[in-house]
Amino acid sequence: MRVIAGICRGMKLKSPHGEVTRPTADRVKESLFNIISNQINYQGCRVLDICAGTGSLGIESLSRGAASCTFIEQNRKVSGILTENLIAAKFERKSELLTMESHKALKLLSKRGVEYDLVFLDPPYDSGIYLSIAELLCELGMLTVDSLFIAECSVRNPLPEIVGTLIKTDRRVYGDTAIEFYNLERA
What we know:
By secondary structure, the protein is α/β, with parallel strands linked by helices. The protein has one domain: 3-Layer(aba) Sandwich (Rossmann fold), CATH 3.40.50.150. It has helices at about 25-35, 55-65, 75-90, 100-110, 130-140; strands at about 45-50, 70, 95-100, 115-120, 145-155, 160-165, 165-175, 175-185.
């Protein structure tokens, strides 16, 4: 697993041994970021990486010029590895890591009034939190009008076309993995 582009291009990221995480494959990540680059300007972009694992998606965003990234990872061991990756990439000052359950972290972040331009959600496929996280982001007003919300899920369990005030705009399939893209519904 490596950083694909930007100032950290080619940097290898650490990951835990075993099946604690399911890092996004480099080829999937490369395709994903090609799509994102056509929709998001990374300069000044505030990123939220939920169920961040090793931090691969958020670190890729920072490498490409995002202003900041907030990482949420519940597993303490994995969170430690994510911290090592942030230090190796020299992104400690541009990032924040919350080691806690995702719903609790979002409620904490919402109290700060921060909105995010790019949000990644990559939980364990069988976690059952996809809809509740997306709905909570909408309910708490944590997305900008032009936000892009991206969920990585199992190809066998597609997400609904509409979740809260989010509307699915694209779906890409890579083997057993589906990447689903959402934007806020326009009034």
